Amino acid sequence: MILVTGAAGKTGRAVIHALAARGEVVRALIKQDSQAAAVEAAGAAEWTSGSLLDRRTLDTAVAGVRAIYHICPNMHPDEVAIGNAIIAAARNAGVEQLVYHSVLHPQTETMPHHWNKLRVEERLLAAQLPFTILQPAVYMQNVLANWQAIVTAGVYRVPYPVSTRLSYVDISDVAAAAAVVMTEGGHTNATYELVGTPPLSQTEVAEIFSKVLDRPVTAQEMPISAWERDAAAAGISGFALNTLKQMFDYYREFGLAGNTNVLRWLLGRAPCSFEDFVLTLPQQP
User: Fold this and answer.
1) What span, in angstroms and rounded, lies between the C-alpha atoms of 257 and 262?
2) Which end of the chain has fewer surrounding CB within 10 Å, N or C?
């Protein structure tokens, strides 16, 4: 059995689906019972609920599993403490493999959520536990937050310059890579960057939208104050709001660029291109 933590989120459900498709039995660790239907629909054979910082919850979750795919909830202020708790539970249970869902370029101290993931990676290196670290780029799926404006108004808005160059990856490719490293040998003590595209400017992303949708789409930089207002109205926590603003500042200055070779090797095929991703999307919001 394989345990997936943070299982009810989009990454967790994608990983569960990919593992179940390979015939693996998956236990999902979710925050609350109301999320059970979502992980069962993804293919989880069973689930347990509770806090990632609660020792009894973790001891129950890891009992009898051979491997763990650990996803910390996105931009969680206690990511390092949660990582420590997962590592301790895995060691106590004699887990054979711990796969950690990190991020591309965690060495970046000016992005707090990246830096916190590096601290967990550091703990993992010292844990004397068989591990694999996956570092995905920006999800292609993140653009769906703009989808209504893209298809109805032909506007793709981002809170950084349209010249900003980012590498993207399809979440399905991330899940497929996770399934590979958890079901095939030879991935112990490895750290893999998961990058699906060369760096694309936001103007180039808009051009792809235009081509696939067969209508003009223009990239526009939105004022950070407008983004902050919308994010606060959507209920994003203060920690996440501040962290995202620091991430956008970093993107503005440096972008986030990666290389596709490792993911291509892991999958045994070309990663999903941004154009192919857009082709899968509905033509209406």
Assistant:
1) 14
2) C
- Please give the share of the chain, as a percent, with pLDDT higher than 70: 99
What integer pLDDT is reported at residue 80 of this predicted model? 97
Please report, for residues 10, 95, 101, 134, 179, the alpha-carbon distance to residue 79 in angstroms, rounded to integers and kept in the order given: 18, 21, 12, 16, 23
* DSSP run (H or E) holding 248: helix 238-254
φ, ψ at 156 (rounded to 5°): -110, 105
Phi, psi of 192 (to 5 degrees): -120, 125
Q: In CATH, what is the architecture of 2-137+170-194+258-272?
A: 3-Layer(aba) Sandwich (3.40)
Give residue limits of the domains in the chain: 2-137+170-194+258-272
Q: What residue has token string 């997962």?
A: 86
Question: H or E segment at 13?
Answer: helix 10-21
Average pLDDT, the chain: 96
Nearest one of 121, 136, 272, 120 to 192, comparing CA atoms: 136
What is the mean predicted confidence (pLDDT) over 14-25? 98
Q: What is the dihedral angle through the alpha carbons of 272, 274, 275, 280, rounded to the nearest 10 degrees?
A: 70
Tell me which residue has tokens 């070309």: 270
Written as six digits, the tokens of 46 are 């069973």
pTM greater than 0.90 (yes/no): yes
**Other CB atoms within 10 Å distance of the CB of residue 43:** 18
Structure-token pair, residue 104: 């591309």
pLDDT at 285: 58
What does the H/E/C string look like for 202-246?
Answer: HHHHHHHHHHHHCCCCEEEECCHHHHHHHHHHCCCCHHHHHHHHH
pLDDT tens column, 217-258 = 999 999 999 999 988 888 888 889 999 999 999 999 999 999
